[in-house]
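idk why but the lab printer keeps eating my pages so im just putting this in chat instead. protein + cytidine-5'-triphosphate:
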Amino acid sequence: MLAVSPNEATKRHVLLLVTGGIAVYKAVEVLRALQKADVDVRVAITADACKFVGTVTFEALSGHPVATSLYDYPESSIPHIDLSAWADVVVVVPATANIIAKMTYGLADEIVSATLLACEKPLVLAAAMNTRMWNNPATRTNVATLKDRGVQFVHPVSGLLACGDTGTGKLAAVSTIVDVTLCVLNQAVCGMPLAGKKLVITAGPTHEALDPVRYISNASSGKMGYALVRAARNAGANVTLISGPVNLDIPWGVTVVQVDNASQMYEATLSEFKQADAAILTAAVADYTPAHPVDHKLKKSIEKVSQIDLVETKDILAKVSEEAHGRIVVGFAAETNNVLEYAKAKLKRKNCSMIVANDVSRKDSSFGSDTNCVTLVMPHEVEHLPTLGKDEVAVRVISKLVQLMNNAQFGVAAQEV
Ligand code: CTP
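predcted complex ->
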């Protein structure tokens, strides 16, 4: 067994296996990103991969010796057994056609393939290779076989390859590989309390067009909503994200409906909610939209605009709550003053199950920041959370949602929540 130092005892473990392809350097970025998510990472690397990036880089960054063979690992005399036992999740970056074939047939002739054969933990393979190798029937069959065995693939994407060809084979974005790995890790460690449940989540601002090039909007970044999408997906939910225009990576493994304005968000949300088990509406929906948008660019020299007539948009949260019939509906309230008072009033007015309130005038809780300080307001309970990263806030909100859904399912009265 590998020794675990006290400051690593609470961390989750990812074993990063590196095989020989030009994308090896991106494995270094994956390692760094996993560490930023508070994960302890160890590395084993094939002799071919060492030709692309030396072990010193992985050793210095991971803070652990790197296993390069079955025989000379300083922390264990049987590294393939001990490393696979130490890991909560194993991720292979890049996974070449060769390692995929070796896994399919159970070969174990060097450290990486032997570790994979000994491994009973969840496996993530970020494949990268030449297009013709990826499309070869042998690789197609091997990938299908491994998927049947439960291996999670991060498929290569299309682009310009190192060999000069253009096609599918390029390693997926580091952010996608990390997102998938953290999702699999979370499910391995925490289980999937929302398995089999469908959730609708709205996020981001809306754009209310004045003309084809101008719109009214707000400063919502969508970060909190996207963090909730990842947390709900990690908890096993089948998530449909209804997203306004934002500048964020689409989370892996969720259905996305892109919308521009409040009216489109209303239609999409109501339609998706019909088959859903719960909804979380984080979007900063515009309260007003121009009454008379024009289909051409307004010219100041021709059309003097001195005022804009606005009409109120439909309240999506109120309507979803009306259609909920016992399903849990969560809203958000971004306020600059009287936060609790306004949140309680909103909970009542919109008749939802919970309002997540935050003071956006605070630096640690503003639009666009990576942290948030929220209060969970329910009919008979108020819970203040400390300032946390938005991912951690999302985990707390999802865990409260799970509790509310369980209480609703088993008929626990609201005051007993
Ligand atoms: N919301 C909605 N549809 C709208 C406006 C808001 O679904 N047309 C939802 C938001 O997604 C959020 C909650 O209602 O979950 C609160 O939004 P907020 O803008 O804070 O509340 P308003 O109803 O706009 O009230 P006020 O402007 O008085 O704060």
